[in-house]
Amino acid sequence: MGLDINTALLLSGLNQNIKVVHRPNTTHFGQTLANDRFESQNPAKYTNEIVLTKLINENPKIKSILNEYNLPININYQDLTKLLATHCKDVQNISKGISENLPFSLQSKVDKKALEQASYLHDIGKVLIPAEILNKNGKLDEYETEIMHRHSELGYEILKNTNLDKKTINLIRNHDQNAKKSGYTFVNKDFNADLDLQILTVADKYSALREKRPYKEPYTRQQALMIIYNDVKDGKIHPFVFKALNNYVNSLNTETLQRA
Fold first, then answer.
1. Helix pair angle (151-159, 49-57), 10° resolution
2. pLDDT class for 1, splitting at 50, 70, 90?
3. CA 245 to CA 238: how far, in whole Å?
């Protein structure tokens, strides 16, 4: 992927002086619910329980997807509220941090509004995932995994008829995809994991790795970076995006030391 590192990467940590060399043939980037203006621009309005219930009930495709698994429409609003306040807010911050640490030539290519909104709303489809699957204290079985993987498609279906722009909605649908098209939801051969999507994907994965979940303890910063670095080597993530994440994480270390 064109990622040169001055010293060997060890499981205990990453060298902060990573040099990114862009070479040919690497992953490329492609290029009314409220009258109040602030409220109309705020993606949180779509997470209001009344609005959310209305959006779900008005889209028959949602019921069709759940019927594939013999699941009723059961709105798990309590868990969604927790996700929005913790993981989704964290993904917003990490996405912003990655964007600000990209080379200047790439920063101008980021759709900041779409990325910010998609970062906050990317897991909204989990409001329809049964709590016993979402909070299972152990590894999901094949059936449960398949249901969980539908959350991004469900999120897309919930929001596709709203005033959100198409870019934001597609980011939500594809936030678990990658440049090798080995993620989910299904994409066709013309799919391009552009810069905004790769930022969202990396931010989501880093946040999830760093969190304590019912089935795992949190990874350290360096462990999480090492896992994502393997995605770079596999061609799933562009090295510039990883470099920006690495710089952002190191800046957090610096800020902590300065406050100490």
1. 100
2. very low
3. 11
Please indicate whether residue 155 or residue 256 has the higher confidence score (pLDDT).
Answer: 155
Q: Is domain 33-259 given the CATH code 1.20.1050.90 in the classification?
A: no
For residue 3, the cross-strand partners are 20
Residue 45: exposure state from Cβ atoms within 10 A (0-12, 13-18, ≥19): middle
Contact 194, 30 (CB under 8 A): yes
Q: What is the dihedral of CA 98, 127, 49, 64, to 10 degrees?
A: 120
* pLDDT (mean) for 24-34: 49
Q: Sign of the C-alpha dihedral, residues 224, 229, 235, 241?
A: positive
CB 46 within 8 A of CB 159: yes
Mean pLDDT across the stretch 147-167? Answer: 97
Give the start-to-end residue ranges of the domains of the chain: 33-259
The mean pLDDT value for 65-93 works out to: 97
d(CA 142, CA 218): 24
CB proximity list for 116: less than 8 A, separation 6 or greater = 43, 92, 95, 96
Q: How far apart are CA 232 and CA 241, in angstroms?
A: 9
196 Cβ neighbours under 8 A, 6+ residues apart: 110, 111, 114, 115, 118, 167, 171
Structure tokens at 187: 């994409």
What average pLDDT score do residues 174-202 get?
94
